[in-house]
Amino acid sequence: MLPLLPAVHSNFIFLKADFPNLYSLGAEAELLVHTDPAAALMKLRLFGEKLVDQLFAEHQLPALTENTQHRRLEELRRARLQSGAAAPVKGKRGRKAKAEPTPLFE
Fold first, then answer.
1. For the chain, counts of helices (H) and of strands (E)
2. Within 13 Å, how many C-alpha atoms sit on residue 103's CB side?
3. How far apart are the first and last CA of the chain?
4. Residue 103 backbone phi and psi in degrees, to 5
5. Is 73 exposed, middle or buried (0-12, 13-18, 19+ CB in 10 A)?
6. What Å distances lie between residue 89 and 25, 36, 47, 77, 93, CA to CA?
7. Is the pLDDT of residue 19 over 60?
8. Cβ–Cβ contacts within 10 Å for residue 25, how many?
9. What are the residue boundaries of the structural domains of the chain, listed by start?
10. What is the pTM of this model?
C-alpha cells in the first residue's frame, strides 16, 4: 500500500482522519481510474472488503465459517447494519422520481 496520499481532490478525504487505510485505498483508486482501470477496480474491491472488516470489528460480529465477501454482506444485512433498499430518489424539482429504486440485495 502506498503512503497516505495528498488529499487535494479526493472524494475520500472525509475518511482520512479516522480510517486512513480506507482513505488511502479510495484515493489510490481515484488516481488510477484513468491510467489503470483494472488496478483501480482492485483497489475499490479491497476498499469494500476493508470496510466490511471495519464494520464486523466495530459491531463485534463473530467470524463466519464461510468467510466470503458475499456471505459477510449477507450477515451485515441480517444484523441490520446494511440497508436492503436505496433511499427514494428525488427529481430536479424535489419531487419523487417516477422510477422507484430497486433493492440492493434480495
1. 3, 0
2. 6
3. 34
4. -60, 145
5. middle
6. 29, 32, 26, 21, 11
7. yes
8. 25
9. 13-78
10. 0.67
